[in-house]
Amino acid sequence: MTAYVPGLTETDLKKIVLALQQLAAGRSNAVGSVTLAAGVSSTTVTTANCAAGSTPILTPASAAAATELGNGTMYVSAVSNGAFTITHANSASPGRTFLYAVLG
Fold first, then answer.
1. What is the pTM of this model?
2. Which residue ranges make up each domain of the chain?
3. Which residues contact 38 (CB under 8 A, 6 or more apart)?
4. Would you put residue 53 in left (φ > 0), alpha (ψ -120 to 50) or beta?
5. Which of 40, 67, 84, 89 is 20 to 30 A from 8 via CA?
């Protein structure tokens, strides 16, 4: 779920309160989903809220993704401004879909 982000010059108190309420309710613009590419050993996720030093957290959203995670063959190998890279098994298995949140 995305959250409303008021601009730096926002003066409407209702909009500022709305943004705070949405954050308190758990909404975030730093979430998404990714399906690992088949036939390659890494997948790059482009996301504006990622920065060097951020921590991507991955949660399996399919049985194939849970199997990949359980095999111990995947990890976040790089984090940079605007993207992170997941290194994983070079598999033809489709549907290895993960949900992610980027913190920091």
1. 0.82
2. 31-103
3. 91, 92, 93, 94
4. left
5. 84
